[in-house]
């Protein structure tokens, strides 16, 4: 073996010890073995689905060479080799995730929740707080929707820019060292056809962030070739317009063949140096990659690739080419490489078996326990004994029982043994009951922050007023709260369309850019999906972004990112990662089809995992911001458009006051009927209540304030005990958030029992609100609509 380091053709940039090269080969080979064996596991029925990184190995061992502690990845399911090479994933862990092993030790990425090849490192400690993120490289948690790693990638990279350029952040060394960290992205060629890809690329170019994106180009997206994915069939060609010049900022762009190990090393070493030092974005288009086993276990690529293409792929297999290159360079002999391969093949087999046994043994033990308990129950089951025993025998026959098989057998045995006495059933029932909290932790826990930083544990601080408290335009209340937040914590970063120079379209941030600078209070392009994605990446690296979506009606562009990424982050990593993003927006009735929306049903259904509040005034809104800023949870605050015009008294403790989530506010006490609403409809209902007084009807009006969570204290059901009648009022479509509120009160709070009349909803129309004051009147519930509905309800 040669003893000096190897210098690669083409420049002084890359040198590497032969030992390192052999280590890279070892990992590439290991990864290939993982793909081959893992596919077999799916075929055997031990896992439901498999998608692997075969064909992308060589590029990834080269990429791993330039990734340093503190750097962070945002990628997709092809990256197993990269994860192995970085020491962020073991072969056994890879298999554990394939099997959906629910033990966090076994699958630290997701505790069995994520699909196979959804990579993530643990960025939080056991208490749900950030570890020292600079001690090792990290991987943000993958999601399945193609392209969805891109908005988050932007934010992960942008955080470095802030850490470098904001002196007030230089002490936060557990998150960053002077912003030296690079965010590494990976994406498939076909996923570059997604809208969020282009939005992210554009934004990263505008913001000039240290992002290095690798496009793994294997010519296909499942069966659809490049020609049908992107213009000119070549993403590298298309990106040329983004290339930086001497005069204009832009991108570093590189193209390199995915089987050419020395060229890959050189390309990555050269590119990363620029990205890291100058903080410019780069794209490395890695072409001529292959898929030796096809896209996934769900189909075979022989069905759509030509014989010629399949032959070409064999000839250009990266692992084979790297092997040949090593021999040509006389870095190792055939025999030495054979030995490495043999070692790795057996290592992978052993790791697979260890993962399988660790996964399966506890379930086997449970099956045995439950089998025994069912057997005892059968003995006491009289006529049903045979039926009960049959369930036990069926369970015992299963070669690889799943946990659900065990639980199903136990539950069904209790059904079948209907006539057995309680004493006979108790042991099995107790066993099943004892599993419930364990399964809760396995499958349900950590949708939200359950630690001391839960938004629900933030101390409640009521607004205070002193002689100096004067009535001001409501936006000034928010402005004062944001001013305090920015002064208090240098990690608070506000940005969005027109947020910087203008101070947002309703002046919540007016003058604050001048006071805190463009990086603390900044303008963003019109790009809702990546405004949220930018915030996700920033929050994952310790910052406290307030990301503004200018109008609630435009939240739809960002809904996918919030629903797939932000809202699921803590859950899908089982408390391994968090992004306490605050999304600020404004909505409800104002004017026109796209400035009056109130799609709260859509939001509360798509965004479980976030907090959602619709405060009726700006003091309450300020309180919600203050609450979220102290918590580890993401949330959306919808400010009410027509409340900016009103006057509010400025509290003397505007920087400290908090509004609690899940706590309602009784706006008016009454005997006869309970009206539950929130946001802009509070004012409508209040006016209706005054008119209804004339008809002798006494309305109790409750402002729900927060929809996720909703009335945790059950205050509304308490109200029903008195009034026995309820109307749920909102501006959403019929069956939207009004129905959600009804379900919460009637079912969760058991409010049904107190009703003497049909529970009612009064909502906006099914269509988008028509333009103008008259359009509004016929599209949204009016004072008169509330009056009529309540009168009808009282007649029942
Ligand atoms: C939004 C979305 N649409 C469709 C899919 C289904 N899907 C999964 S992978 C894939 C092809 C991706 O191809 P490419 O980006 O080239 O990555 P490759 O698998 O080839 O590495 C598709 C269509 C998805 N996961 N997400
Ligand atoms: Mg592809």
- What is the gyration radius calculated from CA atoms? 30 Å
Task: Output the structural class.
Answer: alpha/beta
Dominant shape: globular
The N- to C-terminal Cα distance equals 93 Å
Task: Report helical residue fraction.
Answer: 40-55%
Query: Any ligands, ions or cofactors bound here, and which?
Result: thiamine diphosphate, magnesium ion
Neighbour order of strands in the largest sheet: 13-12-14-15-17-16-22
Number of helices: 26
Low-confidence stretches: none
Percentage beta strand:
5-15%
Can you summarize the main beta sheet? Answer: 7 strands, mixed
Q: Summarize model confidence as the mean pLDDT.
A: 96
Q: State the total count of DSSP E strands.
A: 24
Report on this model:
The protein has 796 residues and is an alpha/beta fold. The chain is 43% helix and 12% strand. The strands form six sheets. It has a seven-stranded mixed β-sheet with strand order 13-12-14-15-17-16-22, with helices on both faces. The longest helix has 46 residues, at 334-379. The N and C termini lie far apart (93 Å). The site of magnesium ion (MG) has 6 residues, from strand 7.
């Amino acid at each position: 073996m040669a003893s000096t380091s190897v210098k690669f053709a083409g420049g002084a940039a890359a040198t590497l010890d032969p030992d390192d090269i052999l280590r890279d080969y070892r990992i590439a080979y290991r990864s290939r073995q993982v793909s081959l064996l893992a596919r077999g596991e799916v075929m055997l029925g031990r896992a439901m689905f498999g998608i692997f990184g075969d064909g992308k190995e060589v590029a990834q061992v080269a990429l791993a060479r330039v990734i340093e502690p503190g750097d962070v990845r945002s990628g997709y399911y092809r990256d197993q080799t990269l994860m192995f090479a970085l020491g962020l994933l073991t072969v056994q862990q890879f298999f554990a995730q394939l099997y959906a092993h629910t033990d966090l030790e076994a699958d630290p990425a997701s505790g069995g929740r994520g699909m196979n090849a959804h990579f993530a490192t643990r960025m939080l400690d056991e208490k749900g707080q950030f570890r020292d993120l600079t001690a090792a490289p990290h991987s943000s948690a993958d999601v399945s929707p193609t392209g969805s790693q891109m908005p988050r990638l932007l934010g992960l990279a942008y955080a470095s820019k802030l850490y470098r350029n904001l002196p007030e952040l230089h002490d936060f060394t557990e998150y960053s060292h002077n912003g030296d960290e690079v965010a590494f992205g990976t994406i498939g060629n076909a996923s570059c056809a997604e809208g969020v890809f282009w939005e992210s690329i554009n934004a990263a170019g505008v913001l000039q962030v240290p992002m290095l994106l690798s496009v793994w180009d294997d010519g296909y997206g499942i069966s659809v070739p490049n020609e049908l994915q992107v213009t000119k069939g070549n993403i590298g060609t298309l990106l040329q317009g983004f290339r930086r010049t001497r005069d204009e900022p832009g991108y570093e762009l590189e193209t390199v063949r995915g089987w050419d190990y020395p060229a890959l090393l050189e390309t990555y070493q050269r590119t990363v140096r620029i990205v890291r030092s100058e903080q410019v974005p780069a794209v490395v288009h890695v072409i001529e990659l292959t898929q030796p086993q096809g896209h996934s276990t769900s189909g075979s690529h022989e069905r759509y690739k030509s014989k010629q293409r399949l032959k070409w792929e064999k000839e250009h297999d990266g692992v084979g080419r790297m092997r040949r290159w090593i021999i040509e360079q006389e870095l190792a002999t055939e025999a030495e490489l054979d030995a490495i391969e043999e070692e790795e093949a057996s290592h992978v087999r052993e790791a697979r078996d260890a993962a399988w046994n660790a996964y399966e043994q506890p379930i086997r033990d449970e099956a045995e326990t439950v089998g025994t308990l069912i057997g005892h129950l059968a003995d006491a089951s009289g006529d049903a004994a045979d039926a009960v025993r049959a369930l036990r025998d069926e369970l015992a026959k299963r070669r690889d029982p799943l946990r659900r098989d065990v639980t199903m057998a136990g539950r069904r045995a209790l059904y079948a043994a209907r006539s057995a006495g309680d004493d006979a059933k108790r042991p099995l029932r107790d066993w099943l009951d004892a599993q419930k909290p364990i399964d809760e932790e396995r499958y349900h826990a950590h949708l939200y922050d359950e630690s001391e930083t839960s938004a629900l544990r933030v101390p409640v601080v009521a607004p205070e007023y002193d002689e100096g408290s004067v009535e001001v335009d409501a936006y000034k209340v928010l402005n004062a709260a944001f001013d305090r937040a920015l002064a208090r914590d240098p990690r608070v970063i506000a940005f969005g369309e027109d947020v910087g120079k203008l101070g947002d379209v309703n002046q919540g941030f007016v003058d604050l850019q001048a006071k805190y600078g463009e990086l603390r209070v900044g303008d963003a392009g019109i790009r809702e999906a990546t405004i949220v994605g930018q915030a996700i990446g920033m929050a994952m690296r310790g910052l406290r972004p307030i990301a503004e979506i200018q109008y609630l009606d435009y939240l739809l562009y960002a809904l996918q990112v919030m629903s797939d990424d932000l809202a699921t982050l803590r859950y899908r990593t089982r408390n391994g990662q968090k992004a306490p993003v605050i999304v600020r927006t404004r909505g409800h009735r104002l004017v026109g089809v796209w400035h009056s929306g109130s799609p709260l049903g859509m939001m509360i259904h798509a965004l479980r995992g976030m907090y959602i509040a619709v405060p009726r005034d700006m003091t309450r809104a300020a309180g919600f911001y203050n609450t979220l800023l102290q918590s580890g949870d993401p949330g959306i605050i919808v400010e009410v458009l027509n409340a900016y015009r009103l006057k509010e008294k400025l509290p003397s403790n505007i920087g400290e006051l908090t509004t609690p989530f899940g706590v309602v506010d009784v706006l008016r006490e009454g005997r006869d009927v309970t009206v539950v609403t929130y946001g802009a409809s509070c004012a409508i209902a209040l006016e209706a209540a005054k008119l209804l007084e004339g008809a002798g009807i006494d309305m109790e009006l409750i402002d729900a304030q927060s929809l996720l969570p909703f009335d945790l204290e059950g205050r509304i059901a308490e109200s029903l005990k008195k009034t026995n009648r309820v109307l749920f009022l909102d501006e959403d479509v019929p069956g939207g958030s009004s129905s959600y509120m009804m379900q919460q009160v009637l079912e969760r709070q058991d409010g049904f029992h107190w009703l003497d009349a049909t529970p009612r909803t009064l909502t906006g129309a099914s269509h988008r609100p028509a333009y103008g004051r008259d359009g509004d009147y016929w599209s949204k519930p009016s004072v008169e609509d509330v009056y009529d509905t309540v009168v009808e309800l009282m007649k029942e």
